[in-house]
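User: hey, got a sec? need Type III restriction endonuclease subunit R folded
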Amino acid sequence: DFLVRLQSGDILVLETKGQDTEQDKVKRRYLEEWTQAVNAHGGFGCWRWAVARQPGEIRDVIMQGEEARTGG
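Assistant: Yep! Here you go:
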């Protein structure tokens, strides 16, 4: 996993995965819960998460993270 600071200042937790396991799915459920809790607290900025399945997707996933905040 990587932490990416987006141009907006938001933090993207970027997970890189090939095949999904049941453990990966559970991890993402907890990651969703964690990001919601951190964002609800409000003292740590805005956090989101995403998964890139192939190395070639990483740039697009990061750009989607940017657009999610700006509505672009």
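Quick note: The longest helix spans residues 22-41. Let me know if you need anything else on Type III restriction endonuclease subunit R.
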